[in-house]
Amino acid sequence: MKFSVVSKIIKWGVALFFSSTILAVVAYRFIPVYITPLMVIRCLQQVSDGKSIKLYHHWVSLDNISPHLPVAVMASEDQRFFIHHGFDFNAIEKAARRNRSGSGNKLGASTISQQTAKNVFLWPGRSWTRKGFEVYFTALIELLWGKHRIMEVYLNSIEMGDGIYGADAVAKHHFGKSAMELTRSECALIAATLPNPRKFDSCNPSAYIRARRGKIEHEMKFIPSFPREGE
Asked: Running DSSP on this structure, what letter comes out for residue 86?
C-alpha cells in the first residue's frame, strides 16, 4: 500500500516537472526574460556583503542589437553555433583531452545554447545534477526556440559586468550608447570579457583583454552574419 502511494507521488512529481518545465520553455519563446536565477543570486550576495543592490538590465529585441555582437560572441564562445544542435561534441572531446593532460587552465566546452539554458533556468555550479538539468533544458530550447531566439535571450540575459546583464545594459553603462550603436570593435571587446565579466572589464580593458579583442576581431572575419528574424 505504502509503495503504491509513493509510486503515485513519484509519477505525479515527474509529470509535474516535465509539464511545468516545457510550459516555461514555451512561454519564454515569446515572453522577454526580465529576471534570471543568477540575477537573484547576485543581488542576494550583494545584500549579504552589506552592499547596495546593483542590477542593470533592459530587454531589447535582437533586431535592436548591433549585428556585430552575435558574430563576436560566436567567434569567442561558440564558432559552430549554426551547425550543432545544442552540444559541440568536437569541443567537448578537445576540452576533455586538454583537461586530462593537466596542462594549463581547464578548458570549457559549453555552447551558447547551454549557457542560455543555464542562465535562464538554472543556478551556477558544476555538479552532475545541475549539468543533467542543463542538458535537458538545452535540448528543449534547441527544439522549441531555434537559433534566433536562443541568441536573442543569450544576449539579453548573460552577465556582462558587475550587476550588468545583457547587451543594452553594458552598452549604456560602459559605452554610453544603445546596443544597436555598438561598433564592431566594442562588440569584440564585450565578447572578450565573457569568460569572467566580473573580473574583466570592457569599460577599462586590460592589455590581456585588448589582445583577446584583436583575436576575436580576426575570428569574426570567418563567422557569417547573423540573420535577422524572417531571413
From this structure: S
